[in-house]
Each structure stands twice: as structure tokens, then as C-alpha cells.
Amino acid sequence: MTARLFKIFCAAVTTLGVIVLVIVLFHIFREGLRWVDVQFLESFPSRFPEKAGIKSALWGTIWLISLTALFSIPIGVGAAIYLEEYAQKGAVNSFIDINISNLAGVPSIVYGILGLTMFVRFCGFDRSVLSGSLTMSLLILPVIIIASREAIRAVPGSIRHAAYALGATKWQTVKSHVIPAAMPGILTGIILAFSRALGETAPLVMIGALAYVAFVPEGPMDSFTALPIQIFNWASRPQEEFHQLAAGAIIVLLAVLFAMNSLAVYIRESAERKHK
Amino acid sequence: MISVVTTISIIFVLVKETSIFFTHVNVSEFLFGVRWAPLLEPRSFGVLPLVSGTFLIVFGSAVIALPAGLATAIYLSEYASERTRSAVKPVLETLAGIPTVVYGYIALTFITPMLSSVIPHLKVFNAASASIVVGIMILPMIASLCDNAMRAVPDSLRHGGYALGATHFEVTAKIIVPAALSGIMASFVLALSRAIGETMIVTLAAGATPNLTLSFMESIQTMTAYIVQVSLGDTPAGGVEYQTIFAVASLLFLITFCMNVAANRILRKFQEMYD
């Protein structure tokens, strides 16, 4: 009897998780869908809900993510290759190891404080896209490094040995064999890291990404706003209409995230097919 | 190397500004004071209301997420067919990928109205709705980490149990869960550390009133929400008010850091056991 009940309980709880997701999505779409149109995408934020849109937030996010990609991908993948292929296993390496996994667990708002002190004040980059993307890079670097290392570690040793047997140098082996073989894993990790960066709000609030920006950033030193900031701003106002606008912006954000995750799944599966 | 530099600079920034803060404010006043009012006269720098707010949320979300996450994991790893598994896993991954600001929006516009239709005197900003949503947010993480831990238990243990005449339920409850216990514990600690550091949900839904209370119906403020509140306002850099966020952030960093180190240590022990 207990056994039956226990199984039913576990199944019910699992179903509950699925139901929660459906309710969340349903609520957001019911509230926000009628606001999402071309005018919404092409207008700046406004005091009047009918005229408000997310143009500056959308472009701010695009700027932020592009610059973050520019900083974090080469450094992250480079660090992973170094740690897996070149670094000697030893006390230093395992210290760095533990360090990286601890960094991945630091609350994002602490990164925001670091960004505020280092980039906004100390380096004098002010509240610019540059400060935002540097902070964001620090935040997602551990994620990229961990994912890339796992991908590189999963490349079978036989591939390396075969390359050496044919007289390839270490660099040739890494460049022409290990990296291409690990590519799908690395790409999946990068995409997942960026879907996290897209939704991160707290560090951007900390470095002071402006909530009301009626222009599109034109260079890395311009101030900016981003989609999550705009959602936060609208959601924290008391009026019902702005809550619905927030739901509209959430739909756009979720659509982008969903597209990115589908891409990650597609890359993973087509890579699995190739190996079989 | 960058990672080490990042750690060092986080610690450096926090220690430097916090030590300036402590030249103005007594350490014991900060740690044991029961009134937090750094922005209003008469000022008071007792951090306990923020800590209690944070732990109220953590406790509330743990009550929801720990049993539910574990039950989901048990179902997925021990009972579900391969097909159900491959249907539920993506749902959990999607739940895990929803940005926290979206969860904050849900707490404010969906959970709070729903709760206040049941509980008449509920405040607009309250700890209950934030706890529920933080619980939903950490649930997928617990479920997938526990699932991994239980699937890592060697099949020989399961077969041994069946050979001794144990039922499916007995094998699950008396062999698999105890064997995976350290992995399960590690996932709990990691998830709770996530809940402590969680910012946007509590900022949007739990309010901005530092309140030393144990009631879920009240409006409270967490450590993270306080940091956001200060950075949204126009507090000038350099004053004591500005340094409070570093002191609070140091405390936050210290708590989550210890929890993460503990969880990683448990996990590593666990891996050694079966390798």
C-alpha cells in the first residue's frame, strides 16, 4: 500500500512540474500577447503604454551579447584548451579547478558589485555597454570553461594518439583533431552560457544600466538598457498596463531563448548522428 | 588564470570596501543589530533583519523544492519509462532556463493575486509568494542533480536488493536513496545556496521592508534585494550608505561560498566512493 502511494505521489509531483510550466507560459501569453506587434518592437519605452516598445532594450541586448561573445568565447575556450591539453596535473591545476567551480556558484549580484567597482568606477568606463559586457563575460566565463573542458575531455585518446603516430605536432593535433571533435560540445556550452547571459538582470541593475533609454547605442561607450532590465522596470510599476507590457517583453525574450536552446539541441543531435 | 584573478578581485573589492565600512560601524553592531535602517535617520546598521528575510525565503522555498525535487528525481530515475523520461527532462530544462526576472513577474502578477484570494490580509509584497516561486526556480536543479546521483548508483546494488526478495519500493527507499544520499545532500546545499543568492524574484515580489519576522504574510527584504534597492537609488559613491552594499555583499559571498565548497567536497567524496 505504502509502495503504491509512494509511486503515485512521485508521479503526481513530476506531473506538477509540467503543469507549472504550462500555467506560467499560459499566463504570460494571455497577458502579453496582444501587445506584441511590429510597433512594440520598433518603439522606444514611453510613459504611455500604447506607445511603449522595446526597441532600445532589444538593441541594447544585441550590443551587450555581441560584445560579451567577443570577450568571453576566445578566453573561455582558450582557457579550456590550455587546462585540458597543456597544463600539468598538479596542485596548481587542481586549485584552479576548484576555483572555477566555486566561481560558477557565486551569486550574480556579487559579479554586479565587482563590475560596478572595477569597470564603472575604477576603469572609468561609466555605465556603458562595455562595462555591462565585461561584467557579463566574467559571469559566464566559468560556465563556458567548464562546458568546453568536458567536451574536450570527451574526445577519445585514440584520436590524439593516431595524430601523434602520423607525426603531427602537439599544436597540429589540438588544432586539427581535438578542437573539431569537441566542437559540438563547446558550441552547446557556449549557447547555454549565452542563454543565461540573455536573462541575467541583477548584475546589469547593479552597474546601472538605465531603465529609460530612448536611443539605440551606437558604440561600446554608450549607455544602454536591456530586455530583462526593461521587464524588471515595467513589472515593478504599479499599473496593470505596464505589467502587460512586461509580459509582452517576456514573450520576446522567451522566443529568443527558445530559438537558442533549439539550436543547441540541434547541434548536439546532429553531432551524435555523425558519430554513429 | 583569469578565473583566479576574478576570485582575487572579488575578494579584494569586497574586503577593501567592507573594511572601510567597519571603520564607521562596529562589527558586532552590524552582525547582531536587530534594526536595519541605513538610509533613514536615525541610522542603524544591524544586518539581522536582512539575514532573517533571506533565510525566511530559503526556508520557504526549501519546504517546497526539496521534497518535490527529490520525488521528481526518484520518479524519473526509478519508475518512469524511457519515453516519459525523455518527455519530462526537456520540461525541467526549460523551467531551469527561464530567466529569474520572468519568475519575479510571475510571483508578482500571478501567485500573489492567487494567494490573496485565499488569505485576506496578505500584503502586496510578501515572503510567501516569493518563497513559492524561488522554490519552483530551484526545483529543476534539485531534480536533475538528484536524478544524476541516483542513476550513478551501480545496478549491482539494485539486483542485490531484488535477489534478497525486496520489492521495488524497498529497493528504492532503503537502498538507492541511502546510497545516493551524499549526492542528494550536495544538490540540496547547492540549490539552497542558489536560493540565497537569488535576486530578481525577491526584489520584485518580497518587498523592501527590512523586517525581523517569521511570518510569510509580511513584506520583508533580503540581502540581495537591499543591494538592488541601493543601486537603483541615487546613493552617492563613497558614503557609509554606499559601503553598506559591500558589507552585505561580503556576508552574502561568504555564506554562499562556504555552502558551495561544502557541496563540492561532498560530491567529490561521493565520486570517489564509486570510481
Looking at this protein, list some descriptive labels.
heterodimer; A: 276 residues; mainly alpha; 11 helices; 76% helix; globular; B: 275 residues; two-stranded antiparallel ribbon; 12 helices
Low-confidence stretches of chain B: none
Poorly predicted runs of chain A are none
The SSE string of chain B, one letter per element, is HHEEHHHHHHHHHH
Estimate the helix proportion of chain A, in percent.
Answer: over 70%
Number of helices of chain B: 12
Q: Quote the distance from N terminus to C terminus of chain A.
A: 45 Å
Largest interface: A-B, 69 and 74 residues
How are strands sequenced across the largest beta sheet of chain B? 1-2
Looking at the structure, what is the overall shape of chain A? globular
Helix content of chain B: over 70%
Oligomeric form of this entry?
A: heterodimer
Strand portion of chain A: under 5%
Treating each run of at least 4 consecutive H or I residues as one helix, how many helices of chain A? Answer: 11
Structural class of chain A, please?
A: mainly alpha
Structure commentary:
The complex is a heterodimer of chains A (276) and B (275). Chain A is an all-alpha fold. Helix content of chain A is 76%, strand content 0%. Chain A has 11 helices and no strands. Chain A is globular, with a radius of gyration of 22 Å. In chain B, helix 6 packs antiparallel against helix 9 and helix 9 runs antiparallel to helix 12. In chain B, strand 1 and strand 2 form a beta hairpin. Chain B is globular, with a radius of gyration of 22 Å. The longest helix of chain B has 35 residues. Chain B has a two-stranded antiparallel sheet with strand order 1-2. Helices cover 76% and strands 1% of the residues of chain B. Chain B is mainly alpha-helical and 275 residues long. At the A-B interface, helix 1, helix 4, helix 5, helix 6 and helix 8 of A face helix 1, helix 3, helix 4, helix 5 and helix 6 of B.
